[in-house]
Structure prediction request, 880 residues.
Amino acid sequence: MTEIAKTAPAARGLLPLPLAAARALILTGGIATAASAFLAWTWTSEFPGNLTINGYPGGLQWLTFTAGVLTALFALAAYGIKGLGWLLPAKNNAPLFLSALAGFAVTWYAVIAISVELGGLVNLEPGGYIAALASLLPVLGALSLPEQLGDDTKENLKAYITKAEKIPAPQPLAPWAERLVITVVTALGLGVFTYGIDTEYGELFIGYLLVVAFSMWALHTAGLLDRLSRLTAHHRGFTLLMGFLAAIAFPFTQTNDHYTNIGVNILIFATVALGLNIVVGLAGLLDLGYVAFLGVGAYTAALVSGSEFSRFSGVQFPFWASALTGAAASLVFGVLIGAPTLRLRGDYLAIVTLGFGEIFRIAVNNMDGDSGPDITNGPNGIPSIPDINLFGLNLGEANDIGGITLGRFANYYLLMVVIMAIIVLVYTRAADSRIGRSWIAIREDETAATAMGINGFRVKLIAFALGATLAGLAGTVFAHVTYSVVPNPYQFAGAAPPNSAFLLAAVVLGGMGTVAGPLLGAALLYLLPEKLVFLQEKSLLAFGIALILLMRFRPEGVIANRRRQLEFHETGQTDVPDTTTLTDEPAVTTKAGA
Amino acid sequence: MTTPVLEARDVTMRFGGLTAVRSVDFTVNEGEIVGLIGPNGAGKTTFFNCLTGLYVPTEGTVSYKGTVLPPKPHLVTKAGIARTFQNIRLFANMTVLENVLVGRHTRTKEGLWSALLRGPGFKKAEKASEERAMELLEFIGLAGKRDHLARNLPYGEQRKLEIARALASEPGLLLLDEPTAGMNPQETRATEELVFAIRDKGIAVLLIEHDMRFVFNLSDRVSVLVQGEKLVEGTPEVVQADERVIAAYLGEPFEGDPGEAEAAEVEAAEAAADATSTTSTKGDAQ
Prediction:
């Protein structure tokens, strides 16, 4: 008897509250949290964002409001309110707890930041205390929800943050409705992303990260992200189109060129990271000197840009020609560096590429006519690179489109979106082909791959050269965006991107072998030091800590490749859903039902 | 007489001062199953690696259907010799189907450009490859698991998949390095039938194996390698009866050989020890 009781204990909450009270607490707490955003939290507008006005939320208060509303929505869905059932398909508790935690985290962060920055709790208005209390209520309520609990506190807490094991299959939607869902989600995503880029001060950005991280986690545990990825798998072309449109829409939402500048840089680094993903993620070649190829592209473009400081100042290529020249130069360098080094494996390759990366920077630094041939102008680099002239359109000048002014960076941003689209296409097509399979085979087991007839060296060289070419292409735009090229950014590690360590971190952090992973990784890694000015000197330390934490808790990266996920979390045969027939693609069966 | 499928002539492999394989001559004829046996460390796998180009033999040549093979693994596979490995070397994080598709590498040509441009030729080739791979999966009985990751297959099926992957390169000769290592008797039986089925497809098979019953059942001819040298070669009956082979495996009787009386004594002592250990484990179980 005791045996049975031990294996299946009665469901109870971590806190002793009856179910009805717990749910009521979450709902009222969520509403109260949202409402408390309308109170004044502090008396002075010295704290950024102006949290002093009753009835009008500012800055961090909007984030608290959003988290409160999300909590309340989840609570209503838990009550079984009609029309909200889709929010909680598995009826599990984790989304409630995590969304409550989102509100709690951002509110308490705001209150603590106010007290610390302004010097003491006296700076809090009663509204601040109310907000802190209100945001605590749903957390307590969620912890009182019944779960199968054991004696181990750690395990008990885990029950509140893990994804539901079985998520019921969604009701079939009409294809147009599915597309509508994708459209809405893309628009929401654009909104969330734009908000993040537009945050004006570090406190807001931290609050934003807290809310986004916990909310996404909540949606993930509710099984909504899985449902979404199933939808996007059906409508791949449509999803890509929407993503592309959303990316194009971004500069139209901006009034300030500063933020579109951030957008351009993110796109450039994301492009380069995606190129690196071919080398590292698919072919498994650890390249620690990758940024050199970005440099080759940038320097080539600068030399033929017509800048008066260029060695060939008389030469001015049109953009398409300089882009091709830059990509071709990178290709040549990729083959030159790859041919001798790719005979090495693993750590040896990493060390040699690290060396070559540094050789590029030092060589460029010395080709100033004194210690070497006069090509790159040494440490002074090549300044005053003129803007790109694309089909008679000067990208340096602001244009009016539909009443919205698109500034210089917005122009470059749109150019980069097109280049990014090309590179995404190259990546996905190459990955899903004979050559892509041989890259993965080489990564998995080089000896077996050669025994299967794959010419390892040739295939690796193709991956290396393709990665280099893509980086060189991005480099040609990079040179124009930044007006000048200097040797310094093209190093192994540094506080500011681009550098090889940064690019590699973006790939690993985002998720190796995926398309979305490096994009997300590059965006995060670029925004963090940009927004958190106080980190400046310590940003490398922060990167290090973040990477260690990630490797401990999610080694496959934020966005996991299906293969990687199984590699790191051994869970048996979970890769094939047992509900579908094995001979059919899972997507096909559900499509037939739709 | 037709040209043999595989002809190794005077193959010698030295690692520094150690000679692992010493001037071995070896042939495999069309439609033949040949077994290669020998005690541990006899140089069987080294010889295999010489045949498949993983090692460059210090001396000697290997030819396939009359043409000398270059010592590069991918060219050997392209010529028509496929192999499996002693310790399974599948692409663990690829699906079953993808593993077989990788095996098709030498028989397809689509490069990077065709992958990027996705012309009609590309789609046709991909489809043909997939059909061929599915045929092979049906052949070995893994068609139902095409979307499983290779790492998640049970051991016996991983061995089978490795054979399917090798067959995907459309070889004329298949080299199996200990195909039944770690298998239970039923799985060994199934592998036996699989090897016969492969031979019936017109593919010659060369196998290294320690399971003597398996080798002698299967092989048309057995070759014994001892300390890098070929000791005997012939039909299973001939090899089985050869005293030198028994000596190589069990060692020769030495002077002061324990007499029968002594052997009986040892046996009795062992039996007694067995008895006590079984009772003690029984006691634990209760």
